[in-house]
Write a structure and sequence with these properties.
Layout: H1 3-6, H2 8-37, H3 46-49, H4 58-65, H5 67-99, H6 105-112, H7 114-117, H8 120-130, H9 137-144, H10 161-186, H11 190-198, H12 203-230, H13 235-240, H14 252-262, H15 266-298
């Protein structure tokens, strides 16, 4: 018998080692560097001189005292909450609808997947043309129906631009929610619905008492993954509004981009990046706790 066979613990670590090395190299090291950078005066000259003086909490004070950061944090919360609510609600409704098979249901589902397959920048550019106040298709349709006179300033009004960005992101994210939730619905035994019907349960009662409880693990995954991808979104906002008008659509992602690549203040950009990492980490912990609770109930 070989030495590895006599040491099962060592053998297990050998199998885990490649994953640990990968995580340390591509996740751990960048994260540590980003944290250190937030406490340094890191400028473009640092790449040539290698000097990044330690400046303590100066970067953090500057970022947290900036009103733009507070506004961006609030906009990020509204954008994320509105997107998740819309994507999940519409995605669940479509998943329930398509769980009842009908003719051409597969074709319709395939068409609804298109927003998910198109690159986000392309979708944003197309929607920017659609929502244009002067020449957009949407305002032309509203005017033809007599619902608007001068056209709605979808992307040029500070009070409407963030809502427009949320609506576009909902359109992009609905297919993902629909596909995952549809797969979860297919795993629920049909016999449970038949038993509920025999007990006199209405469709709404069966949905609340059978569908939602059994779909809870899938719902948790959808919401957490949706949050992780939405809270840090950048390309959609840049292509759609570039953070405007009047910073009405600035989010933590766009502020990080502006600080790091437009103002070239990498230290302050790292601070906002660390805030995003912290927010994502909190929800990752909530996801793990929810999964643990579901597993315990299953046992």
């Amino acid at each position: 018998m070989s030495n590895l066979a006599r040491r099962p613990g060592l053998l297990r670590w050998l199998f885990v080692a490649p994953a640990l090395v990968y995580m340390a190299a591509f996740f751990g090291y960048p994260l540590i560097r980003n944290v250190l950078m937030s406490f340094q005066h890191y400028t473009p000259t640092t790449y040539f001189t290698g000097e990044a003086p330690f400046n303590g909490l100066a970067n953090w004070r500057a970022v947290l005292a900036d009103p733009l950061f507070t506004d961006a944090l609030w906009h990020t919360a509204l954008f994320t909450a509105g997107s998740l609510l819309g994507q999940f609600t519409i995605g669940l409704a479509l998943a329930v609808f398509f769980s009842r098979r009908f003719r051409l249901s597969g074709v319709v589902r395939a068409v609804l997947l298109l927003p998910w397959l198109v690159p986000m920048v392309v979708s944003a550019v197309v929607w920017r043309r659609i929502l244009d106040q002067e020449h957009g298709v949407l305002n032309a349709a509203l005017q033809a129906l007599g619902l608007s006179d001068g056209g709605v300033p979808w992307l040029s009004s500070p009070s409407v631009a963030l809502l427009s960005a949320v609506l576009v992101n909902i359109w992009i994210g609905v297919p993902f929610n629909m596909v995952i939730l549809y797969g979860g619905l297919q795993e629920i035994p049909r016999e449970l619905y038949e038993a509920a019907a025999l007990d006199g349960a209405s469709p709404w009662r069966a949905f609340r008492s059978v569908t939602l409880p059994l779909l809870r693990p899938v719902i948790t995954v959808v919401l957490v993954l949706g949050f992780m991808s939405t809270v840090k979104i950048l390309d959609l906002i840049l292509a759609l509004t570039a953070g405007g008008p009047a910073d009405a659509t600035q989010t933590l992602g766009t502020v990080t981009y502006q600080l790091s690549f437009l103002r070239l203040d990498f230290g302050q950009g790292a601070v906002v990046g660390n805030v995003l990492v912290l927010i994502s980490a909190v929800f990752a912990v909530l996801y793990l706790r929810a999964n643990r609770a579901d597993f315990g109930q299953g046992k």
